[in-house]
Amino acid sequence: MEQNIKRIDASFSVTGQIEQSDLHSLAALGFASVICNRPDHEGGPEQPGHASIQQAAHALGLSFAYLPVPSTGATPEQAQQLRHLLNELPTPVLAYCRTGNRSSKLYEAATQAPRKARLYDVVVVGGGSAGISVSASLLKRNAALRIAVIEPNTEHYYQPAWTLVGGGAFDVKNTVRPTASVMPKGVVWIKASLCAFAPQRKVVLLSDGTELGYQQLIVCPGLQLAWETIEGLEETLGKNGVTSNYRHDLAPYTWELVRTLGRGKALFTQPGMPIKCAGAPQKALYLSCDHWRKRGVLDSIAVEFNLAGAVLFGVPAFVPPLMKYVKAYNAHLAFQSNLVKVDGPGKTAWFDVTDADGSVTRVEKTFDLLHVVPPQQAPDVIRRSELADKAGWFETDPATLQHPRYPDIFALGDVCNTPNAKTAAATRKQVVVVAENLLALRKGTVLPKRYDGYGSCPLTVENGKVILAEFGYGGKLLPTFGLDPTVARTSAWWLKATFLPWFYWQGMLKGREWFTDCKPD
Question: Can you tell which superkingdom this protein's organism belongs to (predicted)?
């Protein structure tokens, strides 16, 4: 086998068609990955299909990719696909086709083709709350910085208000603006998706084949809502009484269901952590119950909150005041009850319920209203990169927000593996830490800022009152104002419903940094 392998460079070799029996030899030669460039059935029934080779490769611990190239030759798109694979697969790589010739030419095209490379001082991955705010803050400190923001979406959302929309207390139209209107002046907006990281070369690869080079990289693409992990959910969202405040187009449907329900059963769910705004699932419950109570129909509605976890809220100090509202609304709490399946037309949901011994039972429940919070994870491009931790979240020093293995890379927002609440308030304080530390790194000085884990969750326990939960790492209470944070207040409602939306658009996204000092121990 070895004599038929042609080495192109230290990380890439090619050969002709291989058999399953050859894989042991390839593993012994030190190859870590195999790429099949030969289309299945090209050579007739005697040609081994890629699936059988892939199965055998995986059994030996080898990575495998199928990138078929016709005998007429590779396309530019296939060369781009190989570039992406070479940034993801462990090396050395062996590629094969019928003779090895196509694999060799494909590699040549992938590595020597002209690239639309552009170099920036700072590249920011993501144009959401974190990306826009940190770009504005950097430019406020140094207007000469060349900053590129990678963001494919043309609309920008103020997501914290969606729970208010679902409770009939906010207009959904006021939660969205064109991305172009919030992009800081002076940055270059790259309207594309990120495909891969190449941190050794200090570049990122985009969906259109472009490579962006950077001196420093900021990663803040947010997280990914995994609707598809709940069987039957996607096809019934927005109808059959199934809704979620975690989507811009569904929050108004939540309010429609709440204001029209007069009797029946209302189920609210919360998946396993981490999720963005851990209080949002119960905010939906509280605002709904408050409306039903004021209409005089609450006694005719059976309300149940199904939580995948074992506690109502992760910071113990806030549990007693929240429980007062749970009891006042006569809501039943079902702990360690995780939504796994939905039949919208049949108005039925299934939950996996874990008992004290760890045994799991599938429980069927009917509903008239089902408010779903989906499981959440880091975006695919993060989870498959070498920059992620074992759980798939972006690996980040919890104090400096710097990557522990690539000091020129910082991260903030929901994608981080830091143990703080994933909220816009957390991002607001992380922005200053990243901006100051990145600029210190550029100057070669000590990183001056430390993030204390601050997060804020304004718990809307009724229309007109909020428990302003502010806390940091380890559940330490970090109130901004000199008031008991466990008390529901009208002033906190004004802060949540009026001031914070205004400040988001006019302050945070423009680099204004009020009340952003962190207080690490």
Answer: Bacteria
3-state secondary structure of 443: helix
**Angle ∠(317,489,304) on CA atoms, nearest 5:** 60
Cα(128)–Cα(332) distance, integer angstroms = 36
Is 238 exposed, middle or buried (CB count within 10 Å of its CB: 0-12, 13-18, 19+)?
Answer: middle
**Which residues are CB-neighbours of 476 under 8 A, at least 6 positions away?**
452, 453
Residue with tokens 């189920």: 267
Q: Which of 288, 276, 209, 204 is nearest to 247 (CA)?
A: 276
Domains of the chain: 2-112 (3.90.190.10), 119-223+378-451 (3.50.50.60), 227-373 (3.50.50.60)
Segment (H or E) for 289? helix 280-295
- Eight-state DSSP code of residue 402: B
Q: How many CB atoms neighbour CB 445 within 10 A?
A: 10
Q: Decide: helix, strand or coil at residue 58.
A: helix
- Is 220 assigned a catalytic role? no
Of 195, 277, 289, 416, which is the active-site residue?
277
CB atoms within 10 A of CB 296: 9
Tell me what percent of the chain is helix, strand and coil, each rounded to the nearest 5.
30, 25, 40
User: Rounded to whole angstroms, how far apart are CA atoms 233 and 498?
Assistant: 33
Cis check for the bond before 281: say yes or no (omega within 30 of 0): no
277 flagged as catalytic: yes
Mean pLDDT, the chain cut into blocks of 10 residues (521 residues total): 84 94 94 95 88 94 94 82 90 95 91 71 97 97 97 96 96 96 96 90 85 96 95 96 97 98 97 91 97 97 97 94 97 97 97 94 97 95 92 96 97 96 94 97 96 94 95 92 93 95 95 72 47
Tokens of 516: 């952003």
CA distances 289 to 258, 279, 312, 328, 359, Å, are: 9, 16, 17, 9, 32
- Rg of the chain over CA atoms, in angstroms? 26
What is the number of helices (H) and of strands (E) in the chain? 14, 26
pTM for this model (two decimals) = 0.79
